[in-house]
């Protein structure tokens, strides 16, 4: 990995480089995505079947688009029981963590007849997109469905692309069944997002769409936002490690590569105060890459977006981390908890040398659907809040309204909204 001494110019160039990976910069795909969305919106199932044949080489029809109980039972026979047991352990951790995020309706009243409150209502229908293609992610199935179940969503509709034989990966099906998906449909890509957003003869329209996907899926979610809600427009994965001379270079190198292997646009950055650590990590990375299965992806990712940044002080490392606002942030320093208190922008923070990023991806419990491309400055991880909506409650008696009614009238007339003012006046004529 390249080792760079950090300065203001380097920081600016690095940030500009990382932002190039944002789905917002792939306008060349937008026209194709919008054409798919409009065709599905107008032609429904027919368009879904044609696009599935074109992109996934699968013959899908009204008879087989929905995954059956027989197919799910077959998936359970194909998946190793030990993996199912691991999924169930992870599921319990994820569920337990998200149950602590629950919000409840509340009401406050006063003796003069004022009642103010907030009513919390789960969304009725949610669509969960699960990618196929380069890799299969049953962990993402759990992370997207479980908080929706905890929130109380009535119906969870999952879509995922089939293989050329019209089958869904058995690991994906088992994870969906364990997590509590109500319906599963064999459709992927932008056409799946359009089907969930507008509905077809087979696939119901939902209120919100969540889940990761390729650039076509990301842009499709962006395009249908407003017709439905979405979780976020996810960019490529990223990790940033803050480390000092106490860090284990082998651990750090392994953690950097755990994200670099996702795809060629993934980002892996080490920010350190130790030149010796930087050199050792660089050597460890080279050794690991030569023996790992996704060698070509790793090499491309590190060539494009892999950096070891040398800084003079830990405070500078913290400043860089807050500026980059990484999806995953590991802190491997002498006093990591003190460093953590100074971090303002990160999707998930991993503290200490045994809290490696894959622990969060699969098992610990916090959600691994995280803000990317600097959006951790204003977005949060996927959670129960993403699957609820809130209504304000207002109730005033005549006795409560009377002392303040002239104030409201004055405010309304100042805005020249006389009908607003009249609505209050008539009650005290």
Automatic annotation (TrEMBL):
Substrate binds at residues 237, 259, 262, 328, 361, 415, 420. It is an enzyme of class 1 (oxidoreductase). Pathway: Amino-acid biosynthesis; L-histidine biosynthesis; L-histidine from 5-phospho-alpha-D-ribose 1-diphosphate: step 9/9. Binds 1 zinc ion per subunit. One of its GO terms (biological process) is L-histidine biosynthetic process. NAD(+) binds at residues 129, 191, 214. Zn(2+) binds at residues 259, 262, 361, 420. The keyword Metal-binding applies. It catalyses: L-histidinol + 2 NAD(+) + H2O = L-histidine + 2 NADH + 3 H(+). Pfam families: Histidinol_dh. The active site is at 327 (proton acceptor), 328 (proton acceptor). Keywords: Amino-acid biosynthesis, Histidine biosynthesis, Metal-binding, NAD, Oxidoreductase, Zinc. The keyword Oxidoreductase applies. PANTHER family: HISTIDINE BIOSYNTHESIS TRIFUNCTIONAL PROTEIN, HISTIDINOL DEHYDROGENASE HDH. NCBIfam families: hisD. Catalyzes the sequential NAD-dependent oxidations of L-histidinol to L-histidinaldehyde and then to L-histidine. This is Histidinol dehydrogenase. It comes from Lachnotalea glycerini.
